[in-house]
Amino acid sequence: MKLLRALFVLALVLAVAAPVYAETQNVKVSGSIDAYWFYRNNFDLRDNNDIGVVPAGTTDFDHGAVGDVNYKSEGDEYFMSITQIEVAADLTDNVSTVINLINQRDWNANSFAAIESVATPIAAAEFDILLDLAYVQMKEIFYSPLTLTIGRQDLLFGRGFIIGWNPQDPQGATQADEFTQIQSFDAIRATLDFNPWTLDFVYSKIDENAHNPEDDRDLYIANVNYKFAEYNAVAEGYFVSEIDRATNAPTATVSQESNKTHTIGGRVQFDPISQITLGGELAYQFGNYRAALANPDRDRSAWAVDIFGTYRWDYTWKPEITLEYVLMSGESDLSATTAEFGGWNGPFRGPTYGWIHEYLETYYGTASTNDQATGQNMEHVSVTGAISPLEDLKLSGTFYYIWSPDDMHTTTTNPNTSVLSDEQGWEIDTSIVYAYTEDVTFSFYANWFKPGDMYTSPDDETASEYISRVTVVF
Fold first, then answer.
1. Model's pTM, two decimal places?
2. Domain membership flag for residue 417
């Protein structure tokens, strides 16, 4: 009798489970392992001190003792790993799902926290598994051109000049946060494909805070893309609205005021001949800006420009050269409380303009008290060259010359008097990438940032970094 009951229960379970499993048409498991080695020197732009790399906004740094001659170091040297597992499943009726799990960690960082004067060791979190992607995509839902994507997903529009990157390090387990591979958004995306037209509408919750709408940070995107039949040409226009109630969340005594950034712009790109690509992008921001609850509300008015061109030689080594000009408007004094605010707000921009300078005062604090975070008040020209002397080997290098469109001054100085040069400096980034197999790639990067006349001694030393990377995908 017990055997008959067990067989009945087993049959019932299989009867229920069979339709569930039948819904899954195809499952793909993939992943990657990235192992990095870093050596970084003088990221604070000051020579002969203990602190090689300082997180922006702090007086401590994550991987060494502060002010202790027993651990004196000009720079930082450490390893980092990023491991990912992704499962993608195709279901019936044009429904698919993707889940990506990730671990990011510096190898045994701050295991000896008491020695390194770090209050909380991160070793307890370094082996945590985090959720990077988790979304469902439904094609031809309700209406054949409509695709709906709901959940944690990557967002990239155009070349990523406005939307392409949302860097996160929830564990605090890596120092080089610019290399994070958690770049996803919690979003709902509706895509209408009227080939050659594509329309995208996105809502993303950036920051929830408490469960009320008065301290949230929300992102709204409308993007229209048109692909021409000739010249590999594309044109797109967009409207992006960031409603930030989180930066100035309300208090018991001060009412809430939001920062609103509305971005409108467009991009064109085409190949006049097969060897040349030309393009440009122009965007304008308006809205309001309030640095703190106690500060007055200011109108926002900012500009960003990107103009680029690439020439590819028809030669065995596949040489190519790219020229680019970028402008992101800024403020001469970020502490000012009056007049129009002209600083560009681009927290989700994808491209990197210099692997060192790009992140100074954003991730890494410099010793200069007048320095500003990059991403606003920055103008540069760059030249990038690349060749492939072997089928599996690519060499590339980029030179950046960077300056400020608005000369910076301090609040104690006459605003009409420039106290800092507009020359921020120049940077050289180089890379060697060797594809050992289809699955394994070795890379080496060497980058240098030379501060310009905007920086004064002793806070004007050359910053450098050397990075090796092994990538395995499966």
1. 0.86
2. yes
